[in-house]
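Sequence design from tokenized structure. All designs in this work follow the same two-part layout: the structure record, then the generated sequence. An example of the structure record is given first.
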């Protein structure tokens, strides 16, 4: 088995990128970065620097893309799409010019590519692709990856909602619970697929260690829950007895106020990590209870910061 020694992270300044970078550095991995600022080892507007940073690396993990936590105005929608497809295309062009390219290119995608599912989980083999703006973005994103001329092993990492302390998607749920609105959202029956941030880097390392794995790979903990169950566990972990249900119309109104889309909590995402499980990957946080316990241990009292769209 080849040991991971050098990795490139594109989009390392974001919440997930920072967490993965810390974990890999702690494990002795040399990490190079691609971004838009001077602190990065390479920048998107310099094809030469992209090729230089990729030369001789073991893998590249691309997380670049504008946050989807915003209103899907024409301007924001264009930026969401371009920030994903253009960076992926730039990576592909650079990789095609490198004499010693990485063995593996992992490009983030999203579990939202699957249809709204309450009847059964969606895996990489039998999962049904959905419709709508978010799905169209995901399909275009993956098209840029798999149609790239770069002759390296490619994985589209269809990631579920990422939870972790210090940021990420959990903060709004904790805030709602602490304000007394920690009941079900909508009818509460929509499925909630998630993954702890610590398992993201571990999963990418697992993919590197298993050269037979390629194509779409789902990254979600194996224990999806309903929205009602998720909010109940948030309340239980953070010591809150009850919470008011938020009907869909209230979520739609609230989403407009904080400049985001209610779809982010109302769509039923039921993502099964079939490829990872069948290849022997073991999640550090397989249950929501274990993930929330770790998050609570590092979460301060009071309202938590939330990035507005």
């Amino acid at each position: 088995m080849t040991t991971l020694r050098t990795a490139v992270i594109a989009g390392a300044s974001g919440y997930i990128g920072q967490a993965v970078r810390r974990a890999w550095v702690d494990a002795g991995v040399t990490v190079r970065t691609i971004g838009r600022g001077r602190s990065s080892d390479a920048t998107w507007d310099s094809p030469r620097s992209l090729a230089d940073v990729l030369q001789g690396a073991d893998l590249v993990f691309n997380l670049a893309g504008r946050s989807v936590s915003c209103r899907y105005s024409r301007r924001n929608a264009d930026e969401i799409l371009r920030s994903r497809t253009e960076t992926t295309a730039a990576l592909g062009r650079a990789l095609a010019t490198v004499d010693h390219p990485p063995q593996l290119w992992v490009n983030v995608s999203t579990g939202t590519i699957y249809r709204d599912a309450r009847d059964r989980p969606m895996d990489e083999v039998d999962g049904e692709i959905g419709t709508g703006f978010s799905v169209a973005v995901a399909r275009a994103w993956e098209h840029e990856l798999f149609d790239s001329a770069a002759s390296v092993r490619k994985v589209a990492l269809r990631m579920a909602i990422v939870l972790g302390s210090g940021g990420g998607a959990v903060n709004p749920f904790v805030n709602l619970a602490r304000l007394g609105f920690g009941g079900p959202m909508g009818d509460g029956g929509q499925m909630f697929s998630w993954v702890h941030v610590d398992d993201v880097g571990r999963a990418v390392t697992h993919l590197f260690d298993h050269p037979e794995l390629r194509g779409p790979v789902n990254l979600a903990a194996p224990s999806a829950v309903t929205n009602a169950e998720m909010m109940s566990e948030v309340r239980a972990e953070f010591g809150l007895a009850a919470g008011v249900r938020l009907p869909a119309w209230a979520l739609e109104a609230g989403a407009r106020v904080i400049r985001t889309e209610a779809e982010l909590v109302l769509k039923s995402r039921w993502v099964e990590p079939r490829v990872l499980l069948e290849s022997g990957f073991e999640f550090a946080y397989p249950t929501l209870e274990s993930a929330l316990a770790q998050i609570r241990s590092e979460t301060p009292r009071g309202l938590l910061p939330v990035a507005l769209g």
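The domain at 6-168+195-220+270-284 is CATH 3.40.50.720 (Rossmann fold). We note this feature because it recurs in several other targets discussed in the main text.
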